[in-house]
Amino acid sequence: MKRKNSSLLATILLILAIAGSASAVTIHNGTVKETTSAGRYTYMLVENDGHEQWVAIPKTLVKAGEKVNYIDGMTMKNFESKGLNRTFDTIIFSEGLTDNQKTTEGHDMFAEALVNENNEQQTMETSPGSAGAVSPFKNEMIDKATGNNAYSVEELFTKREELKGKTIKVRGRITKINMEIMGKNWVHLQDGTGNPMNNSHDLVITTTEKPEEGAIVTMQGKVVVNQDFGFSYQYDLLIEQAKIVQ
Protein backbone atom coordinates (compact mmCIF):
# COMPACT_ATOMS: atom_id res chain seq x y z
CA MET A 1 0.00 0.00 0.00
CA LYS A 2 2.83 2.42 0.80
CA ARG A 3 4.41 1.82 -2.59
CA LYS A 4 1.04 2.30 -4.31
CA ASN A 5 0.42 5.58 -2.50
CA SER A 6 3.89 6.82 -3.35
CA SER A 7 3.29 6.04 -7.00
CA LEU A 8 -0.05 7.82 -6.91
CA LEU A 9 1.52 10.88 -5.27
CA ALA A 10 4.26 11.02 -7.89
CA THR A 11 1.71 10.81 -10.68
CA ILE A 12 -0.42 13.56 -9.13
CA LEU A 13 2.65 15.79 -8.85
CA LEU A 14 3.42 15.09 -12.50
CA ILE A 15 -0.14 16.00 -13.52
CA LEU A 16 -0.17 19.19 -11.49
CA ALA A 17 3.08 20.45 -12.96
CA ILE A 18 2.88 19.32 -16.56
CA ALA A 19 -0.62 20.78 -16.86
CA GLY A 20 0.94 24.22 -16.83
CA SER A 21 1.71 27.20 -14.63
CA ALA A 22 -0.63 30.12 -13.95
CA SER A 23 -1.42 32.41 -16.84
CA ALA A 24 -4.38 34.42 -18.02
CA VAL A 25 -6.84 32.38 -20.06
CA THR A 26 -9.36 34.23 -22.23
CA ILE A 27 -12.87 32.80 -22.33
CA HIS A 28 -15.24 33.44 -25.25
CA ASN A 29 -19.02 33.07 -25.11
CA GLY A 30 -21.70 32.49 -27.69
CA THR A 31 -24.52 30.40 -29.07
CA VAL A 32 -23.88 27.35 -31.24
CA LYS A 33 -25.47 27.87 -34.65
CA GLU A 34 -24.15 24.74 -36.31
CA THR A 35 -22.03 21.77 -35.26
CA THR A 36 -20.39 18.73 -36.82
CA SER A 37 -17.66 16.27 -35.90
CA ALA A 38 -14.75 14.69 -37.74
CA GLY A 39 -11.88 12.66 -36.35
CA ARG A 40 -10.90 13.85 -32.89
CA TYR A 41 -12.59 17.24 -33.18
CA THR A 42 -16.04 18.83 -32.92
CA TYR A 43 -16.51 21.90 -35.09
CA MET A 44 -18.90 24.60 -33.84
CA LEU A 45 -20.14 27.74 -35.57
CA VAL A 46 -20.52 30.12 -32.60
CA GLU A 47 -22.43 33.42 -32.79
CA ASN A 48 -21.90 36.32 -30.40
CA ASP A 49 -23.32 39.82 -30.92
CA GLY A 50 -23.83 39.19 -34.61
CA HIS A 51 -20.32 37.83 -35.18
CA GLU A 52 -19.93 34.20 -36.23
CA GLN A 53 -16.77 32.18 -35.66
CA TRP A 54 -15.91 28.56 -36.34
CA VAL A 55 -14.27 26.85 -33.37
CA ALA A 56 -12.72 23.37 -33.16
CA ILE A 57 -12.65 21.61 -29.78
CA PRO A 58 -11.74 18.07 -28.68
CA LYS A 59 -14.67 15.82 -29.59
CA THR A 60 -17.60 16.89 -27.41
CA LEU A 61 -21.38 16.49 -27.57
CA VAL A 62 -22.68 19.96 -28.47
CA LYS A 63 -26.08 20.88 -29.91
CA ALA A 64 -27.24 23.78 -32.06
CA GLY A 65 -28.87 26.45 -29.89
CA GLU A 66 -26.67 25.65 -26.89
CA LYS A 67 -24.88 28.52 -25.15
CA VAL A 68 -21.20 27.74 -24.65
CA ASN A 69 -18.06 29.19 -23.10
CA TYR A 70 -14.85 28.12 -24.82
CA ILE A 71 -11.17 28.70 -24.10
CA ASP A 72 -9.32 30.93 -26.54
CA GLY A 73 -6.85 29.19 -28.80
CA MET A 74 -4.82 29.36 -31.98
CA THR A 75 -6.51 30.95 -35.01
CA MET A 76 -5.75 29.35 -38.35
CA LYS A 77 -6.63 30.92 -41.71
CA ASN A 78 -7.73 29.02 -44.82
CA PHE A 79 -7.69 25.76 -42.87
CA GLU A 80 -8.61 22.72 -44.92
CA SER A 81 -10.37 19.91 -43.08
CA LYS A 82 -9.98 16.74 -45.11
CA GLY A 83 -12.39 14.93 -42.80
CA LEU A 84 -15.13 17.47 -43.56
CA ASN A 85 -13.98 18.13 -47.13
CA ARG A 86 -14.21 21.89 -46.64
CA THR A 87 -11.99 24.90 -46.04
CA PHE A 88 -12.60 27.39 -43.22
CA ASP A 89 -11.67 31.03 -43.81
CA THR A 90 -10.70 31.23 -40.12
CA ILE A 91 -11.06 28.72 -37.32
CA ILE A 92 -10.00 28.76 -33.68
CA PHE A 93 -8.50 25.57 -32.26
CA SER A 94 -9.57 25.67 -28.62
CA GLU A 95 -8.66 23.43 -25.68
CA GLY A 96 -12.38 22.99 -25.11
CA LEU A 97 -15.45 24.18 -23.27
CA THR A 98 -15.42 25.58 -19.73
CA ASP A 99 -17.91 26.56 -17.03
CA ASN A 100 -16.11 29.90 -16.61
CA GLN A 101 -17.68 32.86 -18.39
CA LYS A 102 -14.79 35.32 -18.40
CA THR A 103 -11.00 35.56 -18.37
CA THR A 104 -9.61 33.41 -15.59
CA GLU A 105 -6.34 32.14 -14.17
CA GLY A 106 -5.28 29.23 -16.33
CA HIS A 107 -3.29 27.15 -13.92
CA ASP A 108 -5.47 24.19 -14.75
CA MET A 109 -8.92 23.80 -13.27
CA PHE A 110 -8.40 20.04 -13.42
CA ALA A 111 -5.33 20.24 -11.22
CA GLU A 112 -7.30 22.07 -8.55
CA ALA A 113 -10.03 19.48 -8.65
CA LEU A 114 -7.48 16.71 -8.40
CA VAL A 115 -5.98 18.10 -5.20
CA ASN A 116 -9.42 17.95 -3.56
CA GLU A 117 -10.26 14.51 -4.87
CA ASN A 118 -9.61 11.60 -2.52
CA ASN A 119 -10.99 8.82 -4.68
CA GLU A 120 -8.28 7.32 -6.87
CA GLN A 121 -10.70 5.91 -9.42
CA GLN A 122 -12.39 9.26 -9.95
CA THR A 123 -8.98 10.88 -10.26
CA MET A 124 -8.13 8.50 -13.08
CA GLU A 125 -11.42 9.17 -14.84
CA THR A 126 -11.11 12.95 -14.75
CA SER A 127 -7.47 13.23 -15.86
CA PRO A 128 -7.07 15.08 -19.19
CA GLY A 129 -3.71 13.39 -19.60
CA SER A 130 -0.74 14.46 -21.67
CA ALA A 131 -2.96 15.84 -24.43
CA GLY A 132 -4.16 18.52 -22.04
CA ALA A 133 -0.58 19.56 -21.33
CA VAL A 134 0.36 20.26 -24.93
CA SER A 135 1.72 23.76 -25.47
CA PRO A 136 -0.23 25.75 -28.12
CA PHE A 137 1.35 25.96 -31.54
CA LYS A 138 3.75 28.89 -32.06
CA ASN A 139 3.82 29.97 -35.69
CA GLU A 140 7.58 30.57 -35.73
CA MET A 141 10.11 28.73 -37.85
CA ILE A 142 13.39 27.94 -36.07
CA ASP A 143 16.44 26.78 -38.01
CA LYS A 144 17.15 23.09 -37.55
CA ALA A 145 20.21 21.95 -35.61
CA THR A 146 23.28 21.15 -37.70
CA GLY A 147 25.54 18.12 -37.78
CA ASN A 148 24.95 14.42 -37.48
CA ASN A 149 21.74 13.08 -35.94
CA ALA A 150 20.03 16.49 -36.17
CA TYR A 151 16.25 16.50 -36.75
CA SER A 152 13.31 18.87 -36.77
CA VAL A 153 10.40 18.29 -34.40
CA GLU A 154 8.27 17.01 -37.26
CA GLU A 155 10.99 14.62 -38.41
CA LEU A 156 11.32 13.20 -34.91
CA PHE A 157 7.61 12.43 -34.69
CA THR A 158 7.56 10.96 -38.20
CA LYS A 159 10.67 8.81 -37.71
CA ARG A 160 10.28 8.04 -34.00
CA GLU A 161 10.05 4.26 -34.40
CA GLU A 162 13.25 3.98 -36.43
CA LEU A 163 15.01 6.43 -34.08
CA LYS A 164 13.94 4.61 -30.90
CA GLY A 165 16.86 4.39 -28.46
CA LYS A 166 19.12 6.61 -30.56
CA THR A 167 20.69 9.91 -29.49
CA ILE A 168 19.52 12.90 -31.52
CA LYS A 169 19.82 16.68 -31.61
CA VAL A 170 16.92 19.10 -31.97
CA ARG A 171 16.76 22.90 -31.95
CA GLY A 172 13.80 25.06 -31.06
CA ARG A 173 12.18 27.52 -28.70
CA ILE A 174 11.18 26.46 -25.20
CA THR A 175 7.47 27.24 -24.88
CA LYS A 176 6.95 25.78 -21.41
CA ILE A 177 9.03 24.19 -18.67
CA ASN A 178 8.01 22.44 -15.45
CA MET A 179 10.78 22.05 -12.91
CA GLU A 180 11.79 19.15 -10.68
CA ILE A 181 9.02 16.64 -11.35
CA MET A 182 10.00 13.04 -10.67
CA GLY A 183 13.62 14.15 -10.44
CA LYS A 184 13.80 15.97 -13.77
CA ASN A 185 12.63 19.06 -15.63
CA TRP A 186 9.99 18.76 -18.34
CA VAL A 187 10.60 21.00 -21.36
CA HIS A 188 8.19 21.69 -24.23
CA LEU A 189 10.07 22.65 -27.40
CA GLN A 190 8.79 23.82 -30.79
CA ASP A 191 10.48 24.80 -34.05
CA GLY A 192 7.46 25.68 -36.20
CA THR A 193 7.20 22.23 -37.80
CA GLY A 194 4.73 19.48 -37.05
CA ASN A 195 0.95 19.35 -37.13
CA PRO A 196 -1.09 20.93 -34.30
CA MET A 197 -4.05 18.76 -35.35
CA ASN A 198 -2.29 15.70 -33.90
CA ASN A 199 -0.01 17.53 -31.42
CA SER A 200 3.15 16.61 -33.35
CA HIS A 201 4.27 20.26 -33.14
CA ASP A 202 5.08 20.04 -29.42
CA LEU A 203 8.12 18.00 -28.36
CA VAL A 204 8.49 17.04 -24.70
CA ILE A 205 12.04 16.70 -23.39
CA THR A 206 13.18 15.63 -19.93
CA THR A 207 16.45 16.97 -18.54
CA THR A 208 18.27 17.83 -15.33
CA GLU A 209 19.41 21.12 -16.86
CA LYS A 210 17.50 24.36 -16.29
CA PRO A 211 16.96 26.21 -19.57
CA GLU A 212 14.87 29.39 -19.56
CA GLU A 213 11.36 29.50 -20.96
CA GLY A 214 11.40 31.41 -24.25
CA ALA A 215 15.03 30.59 -25.03
CA ILE A 216 16.11 29.01 -28.32
CA VAL A 217 18.31 26.01 -27.55
CA THR A 218 19.79 22.92 -29.12
CA MET A 219 19.27 19.82 -27.01
CA GLN A 220 20.71 16.34 -27.35
CA GLY A 221 19.00 13.32 -25.85
CA LYS A 222 17.71 9.79 -26.31
CA VAL A 223 14.53 8.97 -28.23
CA VAL A 224 11.91 7.11 -26.19
CA VAL A 225 8.59 6.03 -27.69
CA ASN A 226 5.25 4.90 -26.30
CA GLN A 227 5.94 5.98 -22.73
CA ASP A 228 2.97 5.52 -20.35
CA PHE A 229 3.02 7.15 -16.90
CA GLY A 230 -0.60 6.23 -16.14
CA PHE A 231 -3.56 8.57 -15.56
CA SER A 232 -3.76 9.12 -19.36
CA TYR A 233 -0.23 10.57 -19.43
CA GLN A 234 0.97 8.73 -22.51
CA TYR A 235 3.64 9.96 -24.90
CA ASP A 236 4.19 8.69 -28.43
CA LEU A 237 7.57 10.43 -28.26
CA LEU A 238 9.85 11.71 -25.50
CA ILE A 239 13.45 12.89 -25.61
CA GLU A 240 15.05 11.88 -22.32
CA GLN A 241 18.36 12.46 -20.49
CA ALA A 242 18.79 15.58 -22.60
CA LYS A 243 21.63 18.10 -22.43
CA ILE A 244 21.98 21.55 -23.92
CA VAL A 245 24.66 21.55 -26.62
CA GLN A 246 26.17 24.09 -28.99
Terminal-residue CA separation: 46 Å
- How large is the share of residues in beta strands? 35-45%
Q: Secondary-structure element sequence? A: HEEEEEEEEHHHHEEEEE
Structural class: alpha+beta
Q: How are the strands of the biggest sheet laid out side by side?
A: 5-2-3-4-7-6
- State the low-pLDDT regions, or none: 18-22, 105-128
Silhouette: elongated
Say which CATH homologous superfamily of the largest domain is assigned: Nucleic acid-binding proteins
Reported by name, the CATH topology of the largest domain is OB fold (Dihydrolipoamide Acetyltransferase, E2P)
Rg (C-alpha, Å): 19 Å
Describe the protein in words:
The chain is α+β, with helices and mostly antiparallel strands. It folds into 2 domains: about 25-95, Beta Barrel (OB fold (Dihydrolipoamide Acetyltransferase, E2P)), CATH 2.40.50; about 135-245, Nucleic acid-binding proteins (OB fold (Dihydrolipoamide Acetyltransferase, E2P)). Strand 9 and strand 10 form a beta hairpin. Helix content is about 15%, strand content about 45%.
